[in-house]
Amino acid sequence: MRFDFEGKTALVTGAASGIGRAIALELGASGALVVISDLDAEACRSVVEEIAANGGNACVFAADVSDEDAMREAVEFAQRKGGDLHMAVNNAGIGGPSVPTGEYPAADWRRVIDINLNGVFYGMRWQIPALLRAGGGSIVNMSSILGSVGFAKAAPYVAAKHGLLGLTRTAAMEYAQQGVRVNAVGPAFINTPLLSANLSPETLEALAVMHPMGRIGTPEEVSGLTCFLLSNRASFITGSYHLVDGGYTAP
Ligand code: NAP
Predict the structure, then answer these.
(1) What proportions of the chain, in percent to the nearest 5, are helix, strand and coil?
(2) Is 157 a catalytic residue?
(3) CB-CB contact of 242 with 99 (8 Å)
(4) Residues near ligand 1 with C-beta < 6 Å?
(5) For the chain, how far is it from start to end, CA to CA, in angstroms?
(6) Where are the domains of the chain?
(7) Residue 18 C-alpha to ligand 1 middle, in angstroms?
(8) Family, per the entry (predicted)?
(9) Ligand 1 centroid distance, CA of 165 (Å)
(10) Which CATH code of 3.40.30.10, 3.40.50.720, 3.40.50.300, 3.90.76.10 fits the domain covering 9-244?
(11) Could you give the angle at the alpha carbon of 136 between the alpha carbons of 232 and 78, nearest 5°?
């Protein structure tokens, strides 16, 4: 499905890699001006080039989502480039070390919460006023299947992905009558550098069989759902959590 985002501006965090990159490419192919935000400006630029090669329009704003000022500046940059901000995807996230809760290093706990949960709040804190100024818009926050079920040795990741659902639902209620929709997406295991850089091929195979479909997902399968939620086709959808999980949570 191709969406019509002509004349709209979108901000995507963690857009230089994996799921965020796929979302940015689909937004760009659907006519949006896309602000590619990630830690590494060079990696962002290569996504801008991919979008441009496909006839789309994108620009770079390198930022760390755990820096509240940088999240304000990212929104101001999007407004300067596009006139207004209409869509935001709070996607940046990290895995954190794999350690049981009783031994989890507090510094790693804080880092994962700072990026995966606080970073979503810092984004929304500035995106919501911008969307209100634009007369409405849509935000998608990247949760996980681990927003609804536990996973051993991943306490801060699971806590952050659960926590951002509460944040999503609360903001959705607060702004439902002002044209700002806020939803969350919950992917199962998706083939991105987050997985391939950290897990062996044997572990990836073991993860694949945990999905009734017998495989892990692709970034494009998450992008399709995300772009739908950003679009006017989802005009009556807010405050909800949408799985894209190959049946992982069905049993
Ligand atoms: P990815 O390929 O590693 O992409 C994430 C991007 O975010 C990377 O470019 C990363 O930069 C960037 N990033 C990390 N920390 C950041 C920060 N503090 N500020 C800004 N950008 C930062 O991972 P992905 O798999 O696409 O994950 C994207 C989102 O989907 C995450 O929220 C993840 O939790 C969620 N998710 C992933 C899966 C999965 O199986 N892949 C499943 C469910 C949910 P560096 O590479 O430089 O660190």
Answers:
(1) 50, 15, 35
(2) yes
(3) no
(4) 13-14, 16-20, 38-40, 64-66, 91-94, 115, 142, 144, 187, 189-190, 192-195
(5) 29
(6) 9-244
(7) 7
(8) Belongs to the short-chain dehydrogenases/reductases (SDR) family.
(9) 17
(10) 3.40.50.720
(11) 100
Q: How confident is the prediction along the chain (251 residues), in pLDDT tens digits per residue?
A: 579 999 999 999 999 999 999 999 999 999 999 999 999 999 999 999 999 999 999 999 999 999 999 999 999 999 999 999 999 999 999 999 999 999 999 999 999 999 999 999 999 999 999 999 999 999 999 999 999 999 999 999 999 999 999 999 999 999 999 999 999 999 999 999 998 888 889 999 999 999 999 999 999 999 999 999 999 999 999 999 999 999 999 99
Look at ligand 1, atom 5, and give the residue with the nearest C-alpha: 14
**Neighbour tally for 219: CB within 10 Å:** 20
